């Protein structure tokens, strides 16, 4: 029932708003001028012509072909379209992402129930609708970009990995790379943590149930009485009936370790002792990785086209930007008096280590911002993107501002890691942070679209909050969505040096 509610809710706003966008902006815009003609070439049966300006593989075009083909027989029967390629209009291709947005919301709903079985159907439905409203993801639901389909493939890969269906998970991993090459990092992340979970099943005597671990952390995980009751009931049901058994919970059942080094050492020993079993179980992911390495060698790099504009760069500041953007988008978890007080008390427990950690965080952030802050030519010249104004009006408003933001970056990362640490092992948190760095740091261009997948993973693993905070955040997302849509559709402008209508967008 929850899936139907989520799908209906997303479709209720996505379909009419997609029609509005297509009526006001019927022609391809921005990156669509590359994606739409390329997809239309595929619709005409021309699979050899390739636009050298396109940087990503043709996964989105294949999905669109399958999608358009599904309603071509009906259109042909009623003489609405005599040939297949007629149906591949800009509006029809854009509607691919409307379908993908619905799929994303349903997958998020199922993932949340899988990761947090005690959350309850109603809460999972609410969270799925909230994520569907996340402004950057929501905006690109109505345009022909790769982001929404990429997120759908990554979420499907994660869901089947949690369910221990590794061949299917690896297949969706391949699909995810066909949408965006950097998704290979998330394949490694899910496979690595899946292997650790697999080891926990091989060594059940070393495990301590996560329910007991959470009980020791109760002061840091406050949930309403109703939610607590629902959670406990869900956990009892899960022990008896869940198809994932003891294997998938808010955090995998794990041994309590005194340090990260001890945890890593224990995992390494178990991996070595069970290397054959793990290699056999996770062979599908190994095949994907070998194929990806072969692709990089054949292609001469990870990017397909426009390689000169997407050179791999040590853009460490990108890592800082993500922390603040994601923390701002998850305001009720990070920027509240209770949260600040909780972190203050946490640092007060071990002042020496906490002081060293803060100083190290500030120092590394200063190095990242001062020496590894890249201003891509697209960022400086293209005033159609909101990042252009954030860069000029906030980060570069004066020479001090980029340094004044450093404490916010550090606070956001400390808060994020602390929240994740309540429900995940240290290795999981470390692997997530490294994955975010590997995805974002090589990208020279600041694009909020790149932050969507790690943001959604954060939401999946953050603690449950009350309905009031969820409602407030949902209204905030809806207000931002409305603002960006109005600016895009009804506040066009023109460039003197170039003909055509320009529009504001993420």
Short description:
The protein has 506 residues and is mainly α. The chain has helices at residues 2-24, 32-43, 59-77, 90-115, 121-132, 135-139, 147-162, 166-179, 184-202, 210-216, 225-241, 260-273, 275-281, 283-299, 317-329, 331-334, 337-349, 351-371, 377-381, 386-395, 401-404, 406-421, 426-440, 452-461, 467-490, and strands spanning 493-494, 501-502.
Work out the strand percent.
under 5%
Q: How do the strands line up in the largest sheet?
A: 1-2
Largest β-sheet summary:
2 strands, antiparallel
Which regions contain 5 or more consecutive residues with pLDDT less than 50?
208-255
Shape: globular
Sequence of secondary-structure elements: HHHHHHHHHHHHHHHHHHHHHHHHHEE
Output the radius of gyration: 23 Å
3D structure, described in words:
With 506 residues, the protein is mainly alpha-helical. The chain contains 25 helices and 2 strands. A hairpin with a 6-residue loop joins β1 (493-494) and β2. The protein is globular. The protein starts with a helix and ends with a strand. It is a multi-pass membrane protein. Its EC number is 2.4.1.256.
């Amino acid at each position: 029932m929850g899936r139907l509610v989520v799908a209906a809710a997303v479709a209720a706003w996505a379909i009419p708003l997609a029609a509005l966008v297509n009526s006001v902006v019927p022609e391809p815009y921005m990156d669509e001028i590359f994606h739409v003609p390329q997809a239309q070439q595929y619709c005409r049966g021309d699979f050899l012509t390739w636009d050298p300006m396109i940087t990503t593989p043709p996964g989105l075009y294949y999905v669109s072909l399958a999608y358009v083909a599904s309603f071509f027989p009906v259109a042909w029967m009623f003489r609405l379209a005599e040939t297949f390629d007629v149906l591949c209009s800009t509006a029809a291709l854009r509607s691919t992402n409307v379908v993908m947005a619905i799929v994303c919301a349903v997958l998020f709903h199922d993932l949340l129930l899988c990761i947090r079985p005690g959350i309850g159907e109603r809460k999972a439905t609410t969270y799925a609708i909230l994520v569907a409203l996340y402004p950057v993801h929501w905006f690109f639901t109505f345009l022909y970009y790769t982001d929404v389909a990429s997120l759908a493939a990554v979420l499907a890969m994660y869901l089947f990995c949690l369910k221990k269906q590794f061949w299917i998970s690896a297949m969706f991993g391949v699909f995810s790379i066909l949408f965006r090459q950097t998704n290979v990092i998330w394949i490694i992340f899910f496979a690595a943590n899946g292997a650790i979970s697999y080891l926990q099943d091989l060594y059940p005597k070393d495990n301590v149930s996560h329910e007991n671990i959470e009980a020791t952390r109760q002061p840091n995980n406050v949930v309403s009485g109703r939610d607590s009751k629902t959670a406990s009931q869900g956990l009892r049901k899960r022990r008896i009936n869940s198809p994932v058994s003891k294997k998938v919970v808010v955090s995998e059942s794990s041994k309590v370790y005194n340090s990260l080094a001890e945890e890593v050492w224990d995992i390494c020993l178990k991996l070595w002792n069970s290397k054959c079993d793990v290699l056999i179980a996770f062979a599908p992911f190994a095949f994907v990785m070998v194929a990806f390495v072969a692709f990089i060698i054949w292609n001469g790099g990870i990017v397909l086209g426009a390689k000169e504009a997407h050179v791999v760069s040590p853009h460490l500041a990108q890592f800082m930007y993500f922390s603040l953007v994601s923390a701002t988008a998850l305001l009720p978890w990070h920027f509240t008096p209770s949260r600040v007080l909780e972190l203050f008390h946490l640092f007060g427990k071990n002042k020496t280590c906490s002081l060293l950690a803060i100083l190290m965080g500030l120092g590394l952030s200063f190095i990242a911002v001062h020496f590894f802050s890249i201003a891509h030519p697209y960022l400086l010249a293209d005033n159609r993107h909101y990042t252009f104004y954030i860069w000029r009006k906030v980060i570069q408003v004066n020479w001090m501002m980029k340094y004044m933001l450093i404490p916010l970056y550090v606070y956001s990362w400390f808060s994020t890691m602390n929240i994740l640490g309540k429900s995940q092992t240290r290795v999981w948190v470390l692997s997530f942070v490294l994955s975010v760095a590997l995805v974002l740091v090589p990208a020279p261009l600041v694009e909020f679209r790149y932050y969507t997948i790690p943001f959604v993973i954060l939401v999946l693993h953050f603690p449950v909050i009350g309905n009031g905070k969820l409602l407030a955040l949902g209204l905030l997302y809806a207000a931002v969505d409305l603002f960006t849509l109005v600016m895009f559709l009804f506040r066009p402008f023109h460039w003197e040096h170039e003909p055509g209508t320009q529009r504001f967008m993420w």
